[in-house]
Amino acid sequence: MKKLENKIALITGATSGIGESCAELLASEGAAVILTGRNKERGTAVANRICGQGKTAVFIQCDVTKEQEILALKNRVIKEFGKLDILINNAGILITNKLEDITEEEWQQTYDVNVKGYFFMTRHFIGMLQESNGVIVNDASVTGLPTFVQGAASYMYSSSKAAVIQFTKLCAKNYAKEVRINCICPGIVDTPIYTNRDFSRFDGKIPMGRVAQPEEIAKAVLFLVSDDASYITGVALPIDGGMAI
Asked: Which range among 187-191, 208-212, 227-231 has the greatest average pLDDT?
């Protein structure tokens, strides 16, 4: 039997990168996956590809910074699937800038997507997950760990991911009897979030000597949402090739 047979999984930011890889891997393990994101064309293409492999997937366009769109998403999940077992909060943006050049709009945009979106999704789906004794995995970052202080222009991204880690831990403690809630802390991953594709700038900063591929992060997510991690909650798991050491 597959690890996620008869499970319903909702993944935000599933149109590319880590979210896309999570959708593909969870579907391969038997889950029906609901993909969300802002880009309808990309999201539909990912869902169609998964369905073409004989698995169950649907794309529902949703901007996680807009509460009304999340409420509409929830209504569709209830109507079409009737329950939710897994929530992966993955939607995120990376904006870097020198401290003196950061605009209020950049700061607000970063926190709207990376923090408020997680709050909205968790608040509106926690009830369904309580009913199913479900699981949440939040995508934070190694840059959000309290002992990790690198990145000359990572003020917005790193601080927003630190907020995600603390939010995860508080939710995990308060809902521990019904919902397991963990977060992953990836290091440098080869995804479209990096507009600068020259990863040589990280040479010497990653002990394992290479950046991660999205599917490597997805495998850790699969572990956390499966029964293999049945006694794990409140964890911030670095998946970083040793960067946090």
From this structure: 227-231
Residue linked to tokens 């507009």: 195
Confidence of residue 10 (pLDDT cuts 50, 70, 90): very high
Q: Annotate 22-61 with b (16+ C-beta within 10 A) or e (fewer).
A: bbbbbbbbbbbbbbbbbeeebbbebbeebeeeebebbbbb
CATH T-level topology, domain 8-239: Rossmann fold (3.40.50)
Rg (CA), the chain: 17
Q: What pLDDT shows up at residue 199?
A: 73
Please report how many Cα atoms fall inside a 13 Å half-sphere around the Cα of residue 93, on the Cβ side.
19
Give 186's contacts (C-beta < 8 A, 6+ positions apart): 18, 139, 141, 142, 212, 217, 239, 240
The pTM score is 0.96
- The alpha carbon of 163 is separated from its chain's Cα centroid by a whole number of angstroms, namely 14
Maximum separation of any 2 CA atoms in the chain, in Å:
55
Q: What residue segments make up the domains of the chain, in order of their start?
A: 8-239
| pLDDT recorded at residue 197 | 67
Contact assessment for residue 237 and residue 183, using Cβ atoms and an 8 Å cutoff: yes
Q: Which of 118, 155, 157, 175 is catalytic?
A: 157
To the query of whether residue 155 is one of the catalytic residues in this protein, the response is no
Angle at 168 between CA 165 and CA 169, to 5 degrees: 90
